[in-house]
Amino acid sequence: MEYSALMFWIGTIVFVGTYVLIASEKVHKTVAALLGAMLMLIVILPGPGHSTSSHEIVQTENLGSTQEQLEQNRTETLAHAEQATPEATGQETMLRKAELYDKLDTFARYSNFDVVFTLAGMMLLVNLLSGTGLFQFVAIRCAKIAKGLPIRTMILLVFATAILSAFLDNVTTILLVAPVTLLVCNELGVPPIPFLMAETMASNIGGTATLIGDPPNLIIGSIAGLNFADFLINLAPFIVVVMIIYCICLWAHYSKRMKVTVEKRALIMELDERAAITDWSNLKRGGVVMILTIIGFLIHGAVGLQPCVVAMAGSTLALCICKVDVDHALEKIEWSTLFFFMALFILVCGAEFCGLMAKIGGLMSLMNGWSVPVVILVIMWVSAIAAAVMNNVSFTAAMVTVIAAFISSTPAFGTNEACRDLLWWGLALAVCLGGNASLVGAAANLVTVGIAEKNGHNVTFSDFLRYGIPVTLGSMVLASGYILARYFILCV
Fold it and tell me: How confident is the model at residue 338 (pLDDT cuts 50, 70, 90)?
């Protein structure tokens, strides 16, 4: 067996085996991802000092297979650069990138630290705010505005969750909202599972609206070059419509199933939401920083800043002006999530290096000649199903590479910016909304079930399917209609 074929099969076995291990939940997902990543680094991926081709370095053009060839190409390009042609300038830029890339350490060349540090910065900022009691205040206030009526309380909590999830990580949102929801449900004397399930669905739907709302969006935005404002303009209005329809469905389904006594409602009205605020000073300071950070996300594309710079700048400013124990604040960052992302990026790079992604991309070439809307819809529905089975973050990390290659090799997308962007929006909607379908579809789902079980409320895999599949099917039908409408308005 040739060396390249051997590397292909080893890389494929490691990649598929890791995903199966993650989906099985027999091993912690971070441990499974790290195991796969380390195998890729040890067996498949070259590190600094290896004799790598510039195709492996830049992943765009084959500029030579040895350092001598690279230097020879560089010399020739410098000679052509004297003519000051755009082609020569472009080649020189590629060579400089290749040289810089070859000097990077192993993790820097294969991990997407833009995504990792964006998540880390937002986790730190949110943890600082959560310590003030802000989110408990919001939940109790929603219940009081609803005057203790269960269905109104559910709708308000669902909307609050969706809004918070648009600007916070989904897992963080659930960790903040779920405990207070259990308190409210206990006071009302109603079962908490419908509330928790509705909030979980809302967190995944609301997170679809922005670049930082759901981790798959961060991955897509990083690869496709889409900024915060792009997501806000193209997806947020549609997500608002989806949330309104979702809340109408909740009202129709639960309004006659939930009844409470006047006494129970009175207990809710007696709760003092202001007592939930434990640190007014840090709330004011942290609130100002959060507003500035959101503004930074809105303008980061225009001023040329990456999302990770905005997030880390916000968290650093918060650490500077808020009176907190820095060591304690850093301990509360979800390090397992960050290492999971770093490992996934390495795993996908290994699959790309060994040729697996090219094989998968070849299957997509079967759609060559199909009409653009059909291609997008097929990719959307396949991605939604795959995200539900594999976990939307894991699937997206692998899929974006395939989609990028498909776009570059398909004239209908590569030469038409509107169609190309529409494909990315379709993928974002599919993986985020598809995550609602199953227990393993999104990290927020697992967190919700874990919190419920700790409080004596068991939710099985099949129980989650009964909640998730109808919501996913309904939202995907709406998403398909939205994509079709945009295609006939913008692309035809």
Answer: confident
- In this prediction the pTM is 0.74
* Residues 203, 162 contacting (CB under 8 angstroms): yes
Distance, in Å, from the CA atom of 69 to the CA atom of 362, rounded to the nearest integer, reads 30
Q: What gap in Å lies between CA 354 and CA 359, rounded to an integer?
A: 10
Q: Which two tokens stand for residue 12?
A: 């494929």
Place of tokens 């469905």: 249
- CA-CA distances (angstroms) from residue 22 to 113, 455, 485? 22, 26, 37
Q: Which of 115, 133, 223 is nearest to 169 (CA)?
A: 115
Instruction: For residue 5, count CB atoms less than 10 angstroms from its CB and return exposed for 0-12, middle for 13-18, buried for 19 or more.
Output: exposed
Q: How far apart are the first and last CA of the chain?
A: 49
CA–CA distance, 330 with 191 (Å, rounded to integer) = 35
Q: Are 158 and 199 in contact (CB under 8 A)?
A: yes
The string of pLDDT tens digits covering residues 156-199 is 999 989 998 898 778 778 877 888 888 888 878 889 999 999 99
Q: What is the dihedral of CA 304, 305, 306, 312, to 10 degrees?
A: 180
Q: Token pair for residue 194?
A: 């419908």
CA distances, 255 to each of 149, 150, 249 (Å): 9, 8, 10
Residues 193-222: tens digit of each pLDDT = 999 999 999 999 999 999 888 889 988 998
Summarize pLDDT for 395-449 with one digit per residue, the tens.
Answer: 888 888 889 888 888 888 878 888 999 999 999 999 999 999 988 788 788 778 8
Cβ proximity of 235 and 209 under 8 Å: yes
| Closest C-alpha to 397, from 446, 336, 335, 350 | 350
CB-neighbour burial class of residue 147 (10 A; exposed 0-12, middle 13-18, buried 19+):
exposed
> Given this model, what pLDDT does residue 202 score?
95
Buried b (16+ CB within 10 A) or exposed e, 175-185: bbbbbbbbbbb
pLDDT score of 477 more than 70 = yes
Phi, psi of 210 (to 5 degrees): -135, 170
In a 3-state reduction of DSSP, which class is residue 332? coil
Q: What is the pLDDT of residue 492?
A: 63
Residue reference for tokens 């939307």: 392
